[in-house]
């Protein structure tokens, strides 16, 4: 096979050249970030010609992903990850500490009228916990829901990502019914997948996701909802927030999110390695394309207080919005 990236220069190692050829072909065919591909190609070949083994070139892919401007993607090689962390990130010391200690869904009633549920990130990348994660969310909703509840706060401040499907499955009644509420678009704005709820069933790309546990009390169609975000709300957390944007009586409050609003797919290079690449952008129910992070409707920086929610500045703002809408 003759690669489209073949250069006339001689490589010291054929395996190194084949590895680079394959990786660049995958990037060109699948990545949404191709603006610097010619420069990436030239520099990667130049730095690799005299290297002896793939072990030596793997670290070079940190620069590759930096030039791709893709910090959601990475090279996976022999159990190690080589990628780029976005340096232009906000920090929130309080929330960073809570992410380390809080791993479970939390719920309570605030002021006897507001349902509050905090959903953390998960590690269900193998889709083995969809049922348990979705059912856990529903159980928390059932514990606090009643005809007294006039509004909801869905807190995604600690949701650093994972599998979005069980989260959407657990919250589908809040999102709506008989609508397309989001999906994916490629670099040419071509639809590559839709998120729908039809007759109470969640469909992702036409596939129905089933949930074993049902709500015990009906969620009103336009009940006011506030979504709370932070600088650590990322990936699946951001997808969850986007699923609500455009819904009636819905507001996003908090900090701009972490900017991992791309769909990532894995592509095999060989038996020991593969590339995770950002392949699609996310759209909301209004077809707005998200090429960067989510900007809240109302920005509130810091002031987080999980020990005393009534003194939490983001919740204070959320309650003020809900009071205007609900009672």
Summarize it:
The N and C termini lie far apart (69 Å). Strand 8 and strand 9 form a beta hairpin.
Structure in words:
The chain is α+β, with helices and mostly antiparallel strands. It has two domains: 14-83, no CATH class; 93-258 and 293-326, 2-enoyl-CoA Hydratase, Chain A, domain 1 (Alpha-Beta Complex). Strands 1, 2, 6, 7, 8, 9, 12, 13 and 14 form a nine-stranded antiparallel β-sheet that branches. A six-stranded mixed β-sheet has the order 3-4-5-10-11-15, with helices on both faces. It has helices at residues 14-30, 37-48, 54-57, 61-68, 93-101, 130-144, 164-170, 172-175, 236-244, 313-326, and strands at 74-77, 80-83, 106-110, 114-118, 151-155, 179-185, 191-198, 201-204, 207-209, 225-229, 250-254, 262-270, 273-284, 289-290, 298-299. The model is unreliable at 1-8 (pLDDT under 50).
CATH architecture verdict of the largest domain: Alpha-Beta Complex
Question: Number of helix segments?
Answer: 10
Quick one: CATH superfamily of the largest domain? 2-enoyl-CoA Hydratase, Chain A, domain 1
Here the CATH topology of the largest domain equals 2-enoyl-CoA Hydratase, Chain A, domain 1
Number of strands: 15
Kindly report the average pLDDT value: 93
* CATH class category name of the largest domain: Alpha Beta
Low-confidence runs of at least 5 consecutive residues: 1-8
Radius of gyration: 22 Å
Instruction: Return the string of H and E elements.
Output: HHHHEEHEEHEHHEEEEEHEEEEEH
Strand content: 15-25%
Please bin the fraction of helical residues: 25-40%
């Amino acid at each position: 096979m003759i690669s489209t990236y073949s250069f006339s220069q001689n490589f010291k190692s054929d395996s190194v050249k084949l590895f680079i050829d394959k990786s660049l072909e995958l990037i060109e065919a699948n990545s949404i970030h191709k603006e610097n591909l010619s420069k990436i190609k030239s520099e990667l070949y130049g730095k690799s010609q005299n290297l002896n083994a793939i072990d030596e070139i793997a670290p070079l892919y940190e620069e590759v992903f930096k030039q791709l401007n893709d910090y959601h993607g990475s090279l996976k090689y022999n159990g190690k990850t080589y990628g780029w962390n976005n340096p232009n990130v906000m920090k929130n010391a309080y929330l960073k500490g809570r992410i380390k200690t809080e791993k479970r869904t939390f719920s309570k009633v605030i002021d006897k009228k507001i349902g509050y549920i905090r959903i953390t990130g998960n590690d269900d990348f193998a889709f083995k916990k969809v049922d348990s994660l979705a059912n856990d969310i529903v159980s928390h909703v059932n514990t606090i829901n009643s005809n007294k509840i006039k509004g909801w706060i869905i807190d995604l401040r600690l949701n650093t990502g994972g599998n979005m499907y069980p989260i959407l499955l657990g919250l589908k009644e809040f999102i709506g019914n008989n609508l397309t509420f989001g999906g994916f678009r490629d670099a040419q704005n071509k639809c590559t997948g839709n998120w729908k709820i039809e007759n109470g069933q969640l469909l992702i790309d036409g596939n129905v996701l089933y949930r074993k546990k049902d709500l015990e009390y009906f969620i009103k169609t336009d009940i006011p909802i506030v979504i709370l975000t932070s600088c650590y709300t990322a990936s699946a957390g951001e997808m969850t927030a986007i699923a609500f944007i455009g819904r009636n009586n819905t507001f996003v409050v908090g900090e701009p999110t972490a900017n991992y609003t791309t769909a990532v797919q894995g592509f095999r290079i060989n038996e020991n390695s593969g590339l995770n690449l950002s392949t699609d952008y996310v759209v909301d129910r209004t077809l707005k394309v998200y090429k960067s992070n989510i900007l809240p409707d109302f920005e509130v920086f810091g002031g987080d207080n999980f020990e005393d929610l009534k003194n939490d500045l983001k919740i204070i703002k959320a309650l003020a919005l809900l009071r205007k809408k609900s009672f």
